[in-house]
Write the structure tokens for this entry.
Amino acid sequence: MEAIEQERSGIHPARYIDDQHTASFVTSQIDRELLETRFQELNPSKEYTRLEKILVCSLDSVIKASTLKLDDRVGLIIATTKGNIDVLDTEHPFPKSRAYLPEMARAVADFFAFETEPIVLSNACVSGALAVATAKGYIQQQQFDHVFVVAGDLVTPFTVSGFTSFQAMSDMPCKPYSADRDGITLGEAGACVLVTSDRERTDATSMELVGEASCNDANHISGPSRTGEGLFRSIKKAMTQANITSEELGFISAHGTATVFNDEMESIAFHRAGMSEIPIHSLKGYLGHSLGASSLVELVVGMHSVANNTLFRSLGYEEPGTSHPLAVIETTTPKKITTFMKTASGFGGCNVALVCKQLSNE
Amino acid sequence: MNNGSDILDYCYISKGTIWHNGAEWFSKEELPFKAFMKAAYQQRGISYPKFFKMDRLSKLAFMASEVMAAQTPFQEETALVFANRASSLDSDRKHQHSIQHKDAFYPSPAVFVYTLPNICLGEISIRHQLFSENSFFIFDSFNVDTLHPYCNHLIATKKAPAVLCGWVDFDTETEYEAFLYLIRNENIPTHYIQQLYEQHHDST
């Protein structure tokens, strides 16, 4: 949070695989030593993969802060796009069976002795935000009283080579919505939130999820819709459920991957939704694109944005570069905010919109 | 007491055989998966060339949904809530193989795009023009007790008029299984769904 407040990016130069097969590029990664130190403080008794360590560390801080007893009323949803995909490499020390997501989930859930079965959600780049909507559904159905939602994804040769083959990677730190944007920067992240119906468990950064919707584009498995259909419909539904007007939205934390087509698609969807003038940012310029984790990390930053009454600059943005103008936040500025919307879109044509509102003082 | 007749339709595929609403609809046990799917495609009289570009998980999901759609076309907002165990590992292994050796490095976008389990939801959405809620869950085995409350939530909150739900798992050439069912109200007992699944799962 401190880095974002100071407009510092975590993106740095890196080289993956070898010189022959990938161009130089930049990525935002979790520091190895920092992760290891933090993880060893939890006194693990077994070996864990890098992603499992990230998930455990993220969960640990939220579980401790909640003081909840992990009984049969407490659920766990793990959102990830690729999970332990790095173990498929023949050089990896872990058995390949660890690539099965239930094995990863079991390792993470058992670390904390969760009583309920962990639920894994793997829905491409909307996984994290969709998991929050799903948690609310389970609470409304009285399946659980509280749900921990944790999300994580790694930067691996697997994803780097794949996105490179798509020619979707930028050689420079990504520039969401900017005219000279030319692709994504991959990043890695872990994030965790507690979704609860118990008002007593909330604190100063907690918000109410007042609208949530997801909708498929029904158009293409890897290309964004030319009309922004799925995103537009997700926004419409989430806003109708939230029962607020777009003028009441303090800002939009959008997906903004910085590919030419994704950002263009978003501008069309926001234009159709009458939201062209709502302040908007993408946090990918700070954090890179952490696939399934990205939308949960960005939701958390959005909540801090509201708690601190600050609009965060959309890092990397210079010149308008979408056919429909957007009110991209160009400088970090104080502003009284009570409501924001988080959107995300992903391969498979999936889209999600979450509307969050500050808790009233009742 | 609801006897489960509100399940409009269901389909089960495993070991070279496709069952529709409990009856065997098509069987080619001797064929490898790819040829089995092509034979079922022809039997169903489908004309959809994109089918042949799909990975094996998407072909399996697509075929199960085709068999069901023939009886009851889906509504535009019919949600898709699928689950499996192996995620997209079949395509993941293929992509990993293409990048494992530096001197034989040939990653392909046509393979990489299928390294996500929810791509099959996108394929079905495109085929039937479904603008709807999509979720892909991962469990150790078919878990109706966890899937069902989420489907009920979608119907109860009017996020979807119906849900095409179930299990679509493709791990290896011989280890694959699909069990899809369509629900449109909140009254279907989970034990009935579990029973339908087990009848097929245990007998194949």
Notes: DSSP finds ten helices and 14 strands in chain A.
